[in-house]
Amino acid sequence: MLTLNHKKLDVWQIAMKFVTAIYKVTNKFTKEELYGLTNQIRRAAVSIASNIAEGSARSSSADRKRFYEISRSSLVEVDTQLEIAQNLKYIAKDSINELEPYLEEIFAKISNLIKSIK
């Protein structure tokens, strides 16, 4: 794999751990949701880390900011989907409690990245 600068970003490293946690949690979802909510949550979680990586590789500030904003939007999407999963009883409150620190930390760090772009 390439040794690139985005891999040094705390937020990217945390987002990668978050993706792993999301896959573990969604493995417990009902099989009928494999192509529905399970797939959607996983794709949005992958999008968080992917857009941080892509944004950091962009040369213009406007492009970097745009990809970081997309990443943050994907995080908000995952948060909403987890709430839906909880409402449907696919995920226990304990699992939500384990994921919340990731959500909060990633949101704050992406927001700080966006603010730092001139």
Order of helices and strands: HHHH
Radius of gyration: 15 Å
Distance between the termini: 31 Å
**CATH third-tier fold name:** de novo design (two linked rop proteins)
Q: Beta-sheet strand percentage? A: under 5%
Superfamily (CATH H level) name: 23S rRNA-intervening sequence
Overall shape: it is elongated
Query: How many helices?
Result: 4
Q: Under the CATH scheme, which class?
A: Mainly Alpha
- Binned, the helix content reads over 70%
- Average pLDDT level: 94
Overall tally of structural domains: 1
SSE class: mainly alpha
Q: What about the largest sheet? A: none
Identify the notable features of this structure and list them briefly.
single chain, 118 residues, mainly alpha, de novo design (two linked rop proteins), 4 helices, 75% helix, elongated
Compact description:
The chain has about 120 residues and is an all-alpha fold. Helix content is about 75%, strand content about 0%.
Notes on the protein architecture:
This protein is an all-alpha fold. It has a single domain (22-116), classed as de novo design (two linked rop proteins) (Up-down Bundle), CATH 1.20.1440.60. The chain has four helices and no strands. The chain has helices spanning 10-26, 37-57, 61-87, 93-116. The chain is elongated. The N and C termini lie far apart (31 Å). The model has no long low-confidence stretch (mean pLDDT 94).
